[in-house]
Amino acid sequence: MKGMRVFLVLGVCILLASVLATMGSAGGNKLPDPGQVGPYAVGHTSFKLFDSNRPCDLGARPIPVEVFYPVDPGTITAATPEAVYPLDPINSVWPLTYSSDWEAYGIGRAYEGPAVSSGKPFPLVVFSPGWGGPIWGHNYLGTRVASHGFVVAIMYHYGDAFFIDEQFDHIAVACLNRPLDVSFVLTDLLARNATPGGLLSGLINPARVAASGWSLGGYASMALAAGVDNIGYNMESELYPWEPPCPPETYVPIYPDPRIKAIVPLDGSNQCLQFYELARVTVPAMGIGEEWSTMLDWGDPWTSWQARQHAAFQGHPSYRVDVAGAYHQSFSNLCEAVALAFEKGLLSQEDYDLWCTWVCASPLPNDEANRLTTKFMIAFLKTNLSREPGYQNILTPGYVLKNEPYLEFFVTEKRNPNAIDDKWPGYFIYFMHQPGSEQAKAEKNPKAVMGIPHMGMKR
Questions:
Q1: DSSP structural state of residue 211
Q2: How far apart are CA 445 and CA 246, in angstroms?
C-alpha cells in the first residue's frame, strides 16, 4: 500500500507538472517575452508643442512629439488606419511615411489614433534622441516598448540642424535645451492626461515616469535625475576645442525633475556631467551602451564611458549593459531610416552610400542591437517602474551569460567609496568584464575628451 501511495503521488505530480507546462505554453501563466512584440497593439499620435519662454528664429520654440501607446488588439479592425510618421515635422517639406513603410524594414506595426487600452493608466517613458537625431530615429523603440504596456513619447530638439534651413545650436545650448524640452513635453502630456475627453485622457500613471534617450538624449535623462550645477562650465572649450566659447546664457544650472522615477540612457553622453553630479542619481538606472573594447581606437576616456556613469550612480538597482559589436548608431534605427529615405528618393546614391558607411557599419546587426536594447529596457522598466513581478530573473549576469552572448551585464558594484576616494581621489575603479574579477582605473573627470558625433546633414 505504501508503494502504491508513492506511485499515486508521483503520478499526480507528473500530471500537475504536465498541466502547468501546457498552461505555460498556451500563455496561461507565461509572461510576455520582452525580447519579442508584446501583447498590446500599438497606437500612435503626433503633435507639435511651442514653448514661448524659449524663443528661437521661428518665434516660440517648436517641439514635435510622437506618442506610442498600448491598444487592446481586439479593437483593431481592417478599417483602423496605419500610423502616419511625418519625416519633416518642422517644415513639412518631406513626404509623410506610414507604418507599412517602416514595417518593410523590420519596425513594429502601429495604428493612427485608435482608442487606448482599457488597461490604462500605463507608465510613461519620455525619450530624447541623439544630437542631430531625427524624431523617427527610434520608431523601433516606440513600437516595441509600447507593445509591452508603456506610453512612449519621443521628441525632436529644434536647433539640432537635421532639417532644411534649421539653425544649428552650440553644443552647450543643446545641453541646456534638451532637458528643458523633456520636462516641457512631460508637463504637456500630464495636462492632456488630466483633461477629460481627449485621446490621451487617463492614459498615463503620473507616479510612474521614466526618462530615456540616446547619446545627448541619454545625458538629458541623467541631467533630469541628478541636476547640473553649471552647463557652460561643464561644456567649456577644453572639452570641445573646435566650438566657439559657450554662450553666456548657458552658464546656468539644470534642476532635477522629481517626476522622473527611473532612467535608461542609451550610450548616454555622461561626459557632459561631473562625476559628483552623476553620483546624485538616486533613482533606479540602467545604462545600455557599447562594450568598451569596440572603442579602443578612440582611446581614453571613451573606453570607460559606460563604466563611468555606473560607478557614480547611487540608485538601486543600477545596471550596466555592455553590447558587444554595437557602435554608437546601433541604438537607433537610422540604418533602416536611411534605406527608407533612399527608397523615397530623398537621398542620392552617393549620399546613401555615405550614410551607410556610418549608420550601418557596426559588426552586430542593427535589428539584433535593437532587440537587445528594448528587451532589457522593458525588463528593467517592468520591474522598477511598473513594479510587475516575474522579470527580475532576466536582470542578472547568470541569465545573460546563459542566453545573450552579445551582452555583458553588471549589477551595482559594491565597494567602499571612502576607501576609493582616499586612495585615488581623482579616479574610479570598475570591472572590465562579466564574468571576471579584472578591474581598471579611470579618471572621474577627464580634462579633455573628443566631441560626441552630430547626426545632422550639415555637420
A1: E
A2: 19
DSSP code, position 144: H
Distances from the Cα of 207 to the Cα of 116, 121, 123, 154, angstroms? 19, 10, 8, 19
The predicted-structure confidence for 273-283, as pLDDT tens digits, reads as follows 999 999 999 99
Residue 192 · residue 120 · CB < 8 Å = no
Q: Give the residue extent of every domain in the chain.
A: 41-319+414-443
Give the residue among 331, 326, 322, 319 at the shortest CA–CA distance from 395. 319
Residues 6+ apart with CB under 8 A from 90: 62, 64, 156, 158, 163, 166
Name the amino acid, one letter, at 404: E
CB atoms within 10 A of CB 100: 11
- My answer on whether omega of the bond before 121 falls inside 30° of 0, hence cis, is yes
pLDDT at 422: 60
408 vs 398: CA distance, rounded Å: 10
Nearest alpha carbon to residue 97 among 151, 130, 139, 58: 139
Give the separation between CA 203 and CA 214, rounded to whole angstroms: 25
Q: Which helix (H) or strand (E) holds 371?
A: helix 366-384
| pLDDT per residue as tens digits for the range 209-239 | 999 999 999 999 999 999 999 999 988 855 5
Q: What would the pLDDT profile of 99-116 be if each residue is shown by its tens digit?
A: 999 999 999 999 999 999
- Determine which helix (DSSP H) or strand (DSSP E) holds 191, and give its type and residue range: helix 171-193
What CA–CA distances, in Å, run from 5 to 9, 13, 14, 15, 262? 6, 12, 14, 15, 53
Spatial contact of 159 and 454, defined as CB atoms under 8 Å apart: no
* SS3 label, residue 434: coil
Confidence band for 7, pLDDT divided at 50, 70 and 90: very low
Closest of 314, 293, 316, 301 to residue 270, by C-alpha = 301
pLDDT of residue 27: 37
Q: Tell which CATH classification among 3.40.50.2000, 3.20.20.370, 3.65.10.10, 3.40.50.1820 matches the domain 41-319+414-443.
A: 3.40.50.1820
Mark residue 390 as left, alpha or beta (left: phi above 0; alpha: psi -120 to 50; beta: remaining): left
> φ and ψ at 207, to 5 degrees?
-85, -5
Place of cell 551595482: 412
Residue 236 gets which letter from DSSP? -
Work out the pLDDT band at 23, boundaries 50, 70, 90. Answer: very low
User: Is residue 266 within 8 Å of 220, Cβ to Cβ?
Assistant: no
**DSSP H helical segments within 391-441, as ranges?**
397-403, 417-423
